[in-house]
Amino acid sequence: MQHKKLITAFTFLCVIGSTSLVIGEETLRINQFQQELDVNIKTINTELNANAKLKDQFEKVDENGDGYLSLDELFSTRSSKRHHQIKKLFNIADTNSNGFLDLAEFRVLREKVIAKIRKRFGSNI
């Protein structure tokens, strides 16, 4: 029994010394794990930054601060030449048909506008 504990401890030390982690029969290199973790953290940070920017944009347009965007609030941000297009996109994004956009619906509206721009000018935008 003592030998088994010693071998287990030795194996553990060798694994740690070789910068590998053995789980069952799977071996995961610590460096590889760290790189994957770093990529995931960067992705999460990018998404958090994008969400923060979107929320900031939403709050700038939400003139009365009620947490919803009306068509009039969107109209006030663009020239009257674009009102027809804004109304059309607004109606598509207003999925619950309450006449207002919440943050989630605003995200859909923004994605549709970006998709339309990319389609017209190319996917590099």
- What is the end-to-end distance? 66 Å
How many domains? The number is 1
Taking all Cα atoms into account, the compactness measure Rg is 26 Å
Estimated helix fraction: 55-70%
Main-sheet strand order equals 1-2
Structural class: mainly alpha
Count of individual beta strands: 2
Question: What proportion of the residues form beta strands (DSSP E)?
Answer: 5-15%
Keywords:
125 residues, disordered N terminus, 6% strand, mainly alpha, 5 helices, single chain, two-stranded antiparallel ribbon, Recoverin, domain 1
List the helices and strands and how they pair.
Elements: H1 2-17, E1 20-23, E2 26-29, H2 30-61, H3 71-75, H4 83-93, H5 103-121
Antiparallel strand pairs: 1-2
Helix pairs in contact: 4-5
Give an account of the 3D structure:
- This protein is mostly helical and 125 residues long.
- It has one domain: Orthogonal Bundle (Recoverin, domain 1), CATH 1.10.238.
- It is 66% helix and 6% strand.
- The protein is built from five helices and two strands, in the order H-E-E-H-H-H-H.
- It has a two-stranded antiparallel sheet.
- Helix 4 crosses helix 5 (103-121).
- The radius of gyration is 26 Å and the shape is elongated.
Summarize the structure.
The protein is mainly alpha-helical and 125 residues long. The protein has five helices and two strands. A hairpin with a 2-residue loop joins strand 1 and strand 2.
